[in-house]
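Protocol step 4 of 6.
Sequence for Cytochrome c oxidase subunit 5B, mitochondrial (Camelus ferus) entered exactly as in the expression construct, tag removed. Do not edit the line below.
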Amino acid sequence: MASRLLHRAGALAAPALRAPGPNGVTSVHSMASGGHVTTYREQATGLEREGMMAALKGPDPYNILIPKAASGTKEDPNLVPSITNKPILGCICEDNSALIWFWLHKGATQRCPSCGTQCKLVPHQLAR
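Step 5 output, structure tokens:
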């Protein structure tokens, strides 16, 4: 029963998609808006679209790219940009098979409890 209804609905919709062109030739029209396949940028909505538009205006608006690595010493610490004063940081230590998580506080440099790599918090502003 359901297949008959679907078949009939398709048969009724098919002529609407085939409209005669300017020279009398029947052509099939796409149901996509504008007759083309939409891009990822055109389909994005909400926060995803807002992030994409902000990324077009400037570099890394939501701080999602990996920060530039430094030597990790007290004189040259890894700079970690953050919009908060106390982010949680995961260190991928060479001698450990798991991530080592620790809080990074605003102010002086701090070291990873496992490998001793030095990190420093740098304030980051969102591009709005």
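Step 6, annotate. The longest strand covers residues 118-123.
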